[in-house]
Amino acid sequence: MSYHAGEYDVAVIGAGHAGCEAALACARLGFKTIIFAINLDTVANLPCNPNIGGTAKGHLVREIDALGGEMGKAADATFIQSRMLNLGKGPAVHSLRVQIDRRAYQAYMKKVLEHQENLDIKQAEITRIHAKDGKVRQVETNVGAVYDVKAAIVATGTFLRGRIIIGDVAYDGGPDGLFAATKLTQSLQELGIELMRFKTGTPARVNARSIDFSKFEQQKGDDEIVPFSFETESLGENKAVCYLSYTNEKTHEIIKKNLHRSPLYSGVIEGVGPRYCPSIEDKIVRFADKDRHQIFIEPMGLDTDEMYVQGMSTSLPEDVQLEMYRTIPGMENVHVMRTAYAIEYDCIQPTQLKQSLEFKAVENLYGAGQFNGSSGYEEAAAQGLIAGVNAVRKLQGKEPVILSRSQAYIGVLIDDLVTKGTSEPYRMMTARAEHRLLLRQDNADLRLTPLGYEIGLISKERYQRFLDMKEKIETEIKRLRKKVLPPSEKVNAFLDKYGSTRLKTGIHMDDLLKRPEMKYAALAEVDEEFPNLPQRIANQVEISIKYEGYIARQQLQAQQAEKLEKRHIPEDIDYFAIDGLRMEARQKLSQIRPSSVGQASRISGVSPADISVLLVYLKVRSP
Ligand SMILES: Cc1cc2nc3c(=O)[nH]c(=O)nc-3n(C[C@H](O)[C@H](O)[C@H](O)COP(=O)(O)OP(=O)(O)OC[C@H]3O[C@@H](n4cnc5c(N)ncnc54)[C@H](O)[C@@H]3O)c2cc1C
Q: What is the pTM of this model?
């Protein structure tokens, strides 16, 4: 028997990384919001690796923070080890990655939700979404509570018709022993939404007491720790270490001997898994030439002995798992606390979404996170933030926020999903971003904080601090460009010290800094006016000057691309009426209905020749 349970502007279905960001954005923008989860003790759960960030994922976290999202702050508050990856490479791929205390992260995010005005949190399973005249109207729970809503965001992660698979055993379930969401799929299908089956997997959790760590190589955190959030002043110290080891011949033998019992190879698993997070059995088969694979033993938190076996996710039978893990030196007597498993779940083909993440088929219904075909906490949180902002802007009658590919990794992520679709869980990588030198993690606030302020998620005080910081960067860059360092014995002695060419005539400080062997901090030795700037500003000055040429070239490319992004396509266009367009292009364009020529050019099956035909047609139609 259903009953009327209340009215909200926005309902967010799911309190994972996507749902949390979506709900906070809606509530912080003043809209009455309710967020649902199947179990409130797993708000912002980390059902897989206990870390946030990493290559390209760290960029997403910084962008979420720059726009006014929460993940960066949550990671800074609950990290137990921090490392900046790829420091040996250029700044475009420098990426922060932190080990997280899983329980502390959940508690932090739940408290933020609980304290947030305009936001109610509810433990309930949403089983139906009701729409009328093609618009969302209500959501209904498994106990018959019906909520009137103006908009709804689906962020159900890996729960929709979740199915746990371990060897030849399979049963309905969500991650970490939670219930699956078994009914919402049908309701979505009745709304005309198509779903597909994806799969992902996770390794075992083992007890630290049963491991001999003397047989592992310790991996410590960085001495100098930098925060994710641009708002975080000071950070604590590293509180934990990780342990490095490798699989070996015996490990590979056991896996090969039991491949026939692997649900991946026996056909029990139907869902498509992530190519870039392969299971160990997949690695053995795909990289048969490799005689060992790297693994890391990572702490799940400070108040637990549970350890995560990074690099050995599997869905092999439990007995095989134990045999396999016990081949690792130091894990001969390991005790498995949580068995590794694969999970299959329903998600959508994201080409059913507009660039705002609103469904084309149902007005005011949005999708975010793993439900949209992506994989990863950071990818989920980024989509949640944008879906939340856009659900509110739609109710305000404002234009949606659509980040371009030259503005943000979030722009690349969403554009790839809704324009190209995906045939496996989509994971963000730096290689996906054609303008990655512009999209560095260190300048995310310079790219996005003004927009965050305009949206209303960045406070006036924070924005003023940002403007002050920006001004300091620009002032220092201007100063270095203007200042000439005359040749002198002292200067040439300084240059000798750094193995740099001696001066015969004066040199502009910025040109000196462009010398590969020169560091910004070193200039203090020959520059009496050298300001004592915070490290964050010093980094910006150094990168902006050292990579000036490359950045300028990429900005030019981005401007070129932007031109096509600004060439909008009318919503009512009939591609079948355009002479000269190939049939495949007509079909693909009609299915995706891109909003700009730029987006049209990225649809697979639409050729440059088709784009030329389209441009001519648009010119004639609206000169
Ligand atoms: C086994 C496993 C392995 C993974 N491996 C990887 C990996 O290797 N690499 C990687 O990048 N990512 C991996 N992930 C993915 C990662 O967990 C997710 O990407 C991330 O958590 C997605 O965030 P989300 O917010 O979309 O969904 P989730 O974090 O899954 O949250 C979904 C939320 O929705 C709620 N919910 C679902 N249905 C309903 C309903 N009908 N009514 C009410 N509430 C509902 C749940 O209670 C939960 O709060 C893995 C996940 C799992 C489970």
A: 0.96
